[in-house]
């Protein structure tokens, strides 16, 4: 089974958790069950000391056992789910129990991705600033050359006028 954590772009924003299944030999997924994020009460990682793909989700009126493809996929799903809950749930946030500390900690995949994006933006900004400075110097040099050319043209005109007399 696979899972999706989706958020609509309509107002008000709605987030949902969808359990899907992909049958062998098929590229499409079939929706099994879907819950609104507000219905989620508890995320149970089952054993924080062991990398396992199993976990349980407790909803308002349902309990569902899940198995991710890998323990890593479970960890990524928990990070996305935790961050989605923090962002979109204002009142009742679900409890995350028996989860590895790295899931809610500062070293999450999402924080690493955010750090990478921030770093890339800073580098791009620095490159733009440097380019802007070079363009500014080029504009100054162009203005100097233009003034020099105008002075030369004026002098040449005076010389020609003087020789012409």
From TrEMBL:
Any Pfam family the entry gives: Sec3-PIP2_bind
GO molecular function terms attached to this record: phosphatidylinositol-4,5-bisphosphate binding
Alphabetical list of SUPFAM superfamilies matching this protein: SNARE fusion complex
PROSITE patterns: V_SNARE (PS50892)
Membrane-traversing stretches: none
GO BP annotations listed: exocytosis; Golgi to plasma membrane transport
Name of the molecule in the record: STXB6 protein
Source species of the chain: Urocolius indicus (Red-faced mousebird)
Name of the gene encoding the protein in the UniProt record: Stxbp6
């Amino acid at each position: 089974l696979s899972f999706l954590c989706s958020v609509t772009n309509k107002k008000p924003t709605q987030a949902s958790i969808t359990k899907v299944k992909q049958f062998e030999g098929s590229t499409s997924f079939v929706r099994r069950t879907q819950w609104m994020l507000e219905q989620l009460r508890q995320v149970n990682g089952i054993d924080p000391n062991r990398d396992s793909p199993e976990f349980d989700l407790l909803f308002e009126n349902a309990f569902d056992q899940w198995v991710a493809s890998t323990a890593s996929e479970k960890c990524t799903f928990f990070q996305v789910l935790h961050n989605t809950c923090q962002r979109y749930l204002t009142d009742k946030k679900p409890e995350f129990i028996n989860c590895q500390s790295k899931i809610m900690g500062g070293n999450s995949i999402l924080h690493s991705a955010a750090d990478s994006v921030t770093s890339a933006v800073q580098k791009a900004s620095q490159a733009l600033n440097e380019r802007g400075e070079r363009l500014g110097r080029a504009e100054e040099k162009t203005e100097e050359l233009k003034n020099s050319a105008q002075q030369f043209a004026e002098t040449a005109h005076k010389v020609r006028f003087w020789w012409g007399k």
